[in-house]
Amino acid sequence: MQVKIYTDGAARGNPGPGGYGVLLHSGKHYKELSAGYRKTTNNRMELLAVIVALESLKLNGLHVTIFTDSKYVCDAIEKRWLDNWQKINFKGKKNADLWQRFLKIAPKHYVSMRWIKGHAGHKENERCDVLATEAADSADLLIDEGFESGLYN
After folding, report:
1. Distance (Å, rounded) from C-alpha 106 to C-alpha 127?
2. Other CB atoms closer than 10 Å to residue 121's CB: what's the count?
3. If you ran DSSP here, which 8-state letter would residue 27 be given?
4. Which of 148, 68, 143, 65 is nearest to 106 (CA)?
5. Catalytic residue numbers, as ranges
6. Share of the chain above pLDDT 70, in %
7. Model-level pTM?
8. Are 20 and 9 in contact, with CB atoms under 8 Å apart?
9. 3-class secondary structure, 117
């Protein structure tokens, strides 16, 4: 089964209030996900969007293509920087908590990343941006424990 996932993250200030937006599309199935956090960074929200999307999949072994406007996330995975970060136990690397979470969920699927230019009229990316910014601006913000604890920044 083929799944297309579109993701975006946002932060009002960096750090500041932030959010992520996700679109999942497979055949006739379509789903949107989003959440906001009271203090976080843009990179954390970009990465969290990918993680939450993968965690929301109900079946294992899916062929998943993730479209992101985050070079940080895309390059870390596709250029295999993540492999080296894992070998050094993420020493000196930011967002280790989220990368470790990604490493738990990603092997359950066949994941490929595709970078797309943000704010370039790409319909799905624009929708994810709206979801992410609305979540960041909402009154009901969650706590990004990894960021606010200071352990992974």
Report:
1. 24
2. 7
3. T
4. 65
5. 8-9, 46, 69, 119, 129
6. 99
7. 0.96
8. yes
9. coil
